[in-house]
Amino acid sequence: MTAIRVLLADDQELIRRGLRRMLEIEDGIEVAGEAADGEEALRVAAECLPDVALVDARMPRMDGVELIRRLSAGHLGVAAIVLSTFDEDDYIFGALRGGAVGYLLKDCTPEELVDAIRRASRGETVLASPVAERLVAELRRAPAAPRALPHQERLSARESEVARLIAAGATNREIAARLRITEGTAKNHVSSLLRKYGIPDRTRLALHLRDTDPLTP
Fold this sequence. Notes:
Blueprint: E1 4-9, H1 13-24, E2 29-35, H2 38-48, E3 52-55, H3 64-73, E4 79-84, H4 89-98, E5 102-105, H5 110-121, E6 126-127, H6 129-141, H7 157-167, H8 172-179, H9 183-197, H10 202-211
Helix pairs in contact: 2-3, 3-4, 7-9, 7-10, 8-9
């Protein structure tokens, strides 16, 4: 099995060293690179091509939110998780809008962090409970207007099945098991649904599908 390659981006060397030691003892995970600021992280990411990046929200020269935007815009295929002591709305919503797949706080347990890395590498969203609660509250306060699907972008029968499972909160692995397809195929269907609905991330898509009827022809 190919190891999950992780980039550590944090301006505190002590934090990076501790994370490296923790991750190096985990089967199937390797630390591919380190960076002390956002600009260095961009360069290192282009060189080592990590699968997952653990990104601090506050760093010199370029903060974590801007780094995540640049990683997403560069199409490097990096699943970025913010790992921070800060849980302000600007950081949370900025990172998620910029393309982060997760937001964890530094008081999480080693087991929670390792699980988040594995899930992020499979295309899943990982949010600390306080962050998830604030995100849901924000989305409920200001719901986006539902976007009707263009005629030429009606859902296929398989996409309709995947949409129902996303609305129910299923992960890619659970979707694959229920529909007897590979996780890669499930991930492709999720990406297609995000594109068709014009919604940037899986969490918003699930909420949208719960509040609307996406399967009406």
